[in-house]
Amino acid sequence: MLCFSRRSLSSLLRSSFHLRGDATAAVAVSCSSPFSDLVGGIKNLHSRAGNAILWRSSQQCCSQGRFFEREQVSFSLFRCFSGGNDNVPRLDRKFFVQLWVLEGRKLKALEKRYRIVSKHRRNYSEPTLQQPPVSQSMSGLLEPKTSEEVKIATLLARSNLLVTRDIEWANLVLGFEQENRYIVVDVCYPQAPVGSIREQSNLIARQLLRTRRPFVASITDALGNDLFRVRRPFWWITSSIYAEIDGEEIGVVHRRWHLWRRIYDLYLGNTQFAVVENPGFWNWTFTVKDADGEVLAQIDRDWRGFGFEIFTDAGQYVIRFGKADAAAKTGPATMIEELEVKRPLTLSERAVVLTLAISLDNDYFSRHGGWGIPFMAVGE
């Protein structure tokens, strides 16, 4: 004997009659209810299939002090897998297989529908990354003159860039040297980065050579598109770092040896266009000047707080490109006071200045596993 609830019994009978093609019986079962008559005794329902369905009157049950009514329906199912009475319907294996297949199709349809709805909801809720607009008008000296400059214009056609190095937790805790990573933000649009810088170097070389290791760093925009890269070979006394676009070198920064001063020469192709002469020690401002001593740009190394400076290498650099034409400002840049320069740098020259900022971080402000103040850990 099997026990079924009212709803389960009706569903099972309808499914049985539909599978057997008996539509009239299915309608009869759907429309008539053998459970409507609640007046005592045992009621018998004889369907066309000849199933004997017995309904027992309701019983009062007590559970945890609360009474509820439970109704039970019992009927006998004749499981005839081989011969038998022809008047008795056969609920054989084939019938149950068909019922199982039908239920599986319904479940698959529900799962597919749920996945589609979830996908639409997820796509609706996830924000889409966008490249912040440029803060300087790309006209005059900032107008791209080559296909290489067109590629880097979305990152460098800006008056101020904030370059922040990520915290290297393995280096901080274990002294294990990791690849350097930087986030580039436009000061006019601080809510979203405009680019990122990621070093690619050999694991063993990082642990053995430390600051003198060779590496390649890729500069990308906010969407992850490669713009250009910097290449820094192994050095012993003075360092050099190269800026390349699509594998072609556009500029280089050479460091000059001095006992305490920090001197860099900036080249665009084979022509030197600027020099940096920093007095060293406590001075963290690196001014880019032309041959006449006029200011072209400036790199400031910011103080991020006692904890950051003592225990981490996570430096922050502000690159000020400035502008000579105030009418070239666009958007929020009109409300920011900018550096006065003799002339705006071209996009290729700005790429070399950004390369200089990466070299400064590795030459002077990377302690790499030691605890101490950055400017006291300078090694020549």
TrEMBL record:
Q: Which domain of life is it from?
A: Eukaryota
Which SUPFAM superfamilies does the entry mention?
Answer: Tubby C-terminal domain-like
One short Pfam name that applies is Scramblase
InterPro entries with a match to the protein in the record: Scramblase (IPR005552), Tubby-like_C (IPR025659)
- Which family is annotated? Belongs to the phospholipid scramblase family.
Q: Which PANTHER family match?
A: PHOSPHOLIPID SCRAMBLASE, PHOSPHOLIPID SCRAMBLASE-RELATED
The name under which this protein is listed is Phospholipid scramblase
Organism of derivation = Camelina sativa
Name the gene for this chain: LOC104698800
